[in-house]
Amino acid sequence: MSARSSLKLATLATALLVAICGQAAAQERWAAIAPNLENSSSVVWATTKEQAKKLALLACKDASKTCSTTPASTNRMTDTFAIMCCTSPQDACAAAVGPNRSSALKEVKKLFSDNGFERCSLKSYFKAGSGEKG
What we know:
A 3-stranded antiparallel sheet has the order 2-1-3. It has a 3-stranded antiparallel sheet with strand order 5-4-6. Helix content is 40%, strand content 27%. It has helices at residues 3-26, 49-63, 101-114, and strands spanning 30-33, 44-46, 72-74, 80-88, 92-98, 118-127. The protein contains 3 helices and 6 strands, in the order H-E-E-H-E-E-E-H-E.
């Protein structure tokens, strides 16, 4: 093999590696959480919204029998999840997401008030990107 052929092959291999790495870096990341009455849920991540929601339900079911069937999700890792539970007209928990705590709290309160729930309390906040409470 000539030096020129070797150089072309090395250039081609490098271009292929850059393309593969670029695709991996461009892959979307979704965070999701399915809350429960025990406040023992955790944030999970996946490459699609649907996969993240499925994983959130599975993670919740590993920790509780009182999981919400509607996980909240986001592809903005700077977002915050707010978890709230209510006791009237029945026990229920939900999560909402927003760019900050106050936005996420406003969304979860609206979700419950629009559906006639009362006696609600905020359980926790979670950071979408790290999964940390707070």
